[in-house]
Structures are given as C-alpha cells and as structure tokens.
Task: inverse folding
C-alpha cells in the first residue's frame, strides 16, 4: 500500500544528475513535491516533467522544491534532463529503495514485462515532513492531477 496523506514521509537519500546526494530530511522547512515516474525518454513521462518545467513558477511561488524520481540511472536521467531542459532535479532511485518505501513499485510493469519500475505517483510534503497530498496514478498512461497538487501547495502557505 502506498503512503497516504497524513503520514510522515519516508526519508530517502538519492543521487541527482550532478552526482550529489539529496536527502528528503535535508528539505525540512520547505514544501516538497516528489514525482515518481516510470522511465525517462517515454512519451507520458516526458509530457509530465515538461508540464512541471513549463509551470515551474507556480511551484516556486509556493516555495516548493520539486524532485522527479525514477529507477533510471543518474546518467540516463542526466541526459534526459539536459535534452528536455528540465529546471528541477531528477533523482535516481536505481536501487528502488524510495519507490518501495512509498509503496509505488510495480511488481511487473505493464509494458514490456519489466520488473522494478516505479509507478507514476505524486506526493506533496509539508515543511514538517508530513504528506499532505498523495496520488498514485491507476495506469502509467495517466498524469497526476496537477491542479490538486497546486491547490495543496497553495494551502500550505
């Protein structure tokens, strides 16, 4: 079962595309949006992350830090981030620890029967580390409810 609103967000430490360790615990005092996505370079994932890129001012105006998280390697994510001109960090959950902790790991990904791919999911975490919004998309082809994410962020300020 995935993490629900009202629960304390599980901490994680993952590498970003610049090879720096990023911990959720280090983000205390800031609102955080964690977007799990299945795979870089796929159509829906590209659309999702480019939507965030194009609307980054909305997140910045609510003092939110946005992190995209995928099981892809940090090198793959670095290439993807550069090609799409993404203006927020992508974190590699290559060992699948964060996806497991949040309950968003497919046993078998519907496409290509791959194991260990994260589901598309969105979590808004407040300044104290409590999940205020949790959404796990029913299928990999569904996008998160960006309006609900933005409403949640607006309510935190």
Result:
């Amino acid at each position: 079962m995935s993490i629900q609103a009202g629960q304390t967000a599980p901490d994680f430490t993952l590498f970003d595309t610049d090879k720096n360790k990023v911990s959720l615990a280090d983000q205390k005092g800031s609102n955080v949006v964690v977007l799990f996505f299945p795979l870089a370079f796929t159509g829906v994932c590209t659309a999702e992350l480019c939507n965030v890129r194009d609307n980054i001012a909305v997140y910045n105006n609510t003092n939110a830090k946005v992190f995209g998280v995928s099981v892809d390697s940090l090198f793959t994510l670095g290439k993807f981030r550069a090609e799409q001109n993404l203006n927020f960090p992508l974190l590699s959950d290559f060992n699948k620890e964060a996806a497991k902790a949040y309950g968003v790991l497919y046993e078998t990904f519907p496409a290509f029967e791959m194991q260990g791919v994260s589901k598309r999911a969105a979590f808004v975490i407040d300044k104290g580390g409590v999940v205020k919004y949790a959404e796990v998309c029913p299928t990999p082809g569904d996008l998160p409810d960006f309006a609900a994410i933005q409403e949640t962020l607006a309510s935190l300020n």
About this structure: The chain has a mean pLDDT of 95. Strands lie at 13-16, 21-23, 31-36, 64-70, 90-92, 121-125, 131-136.
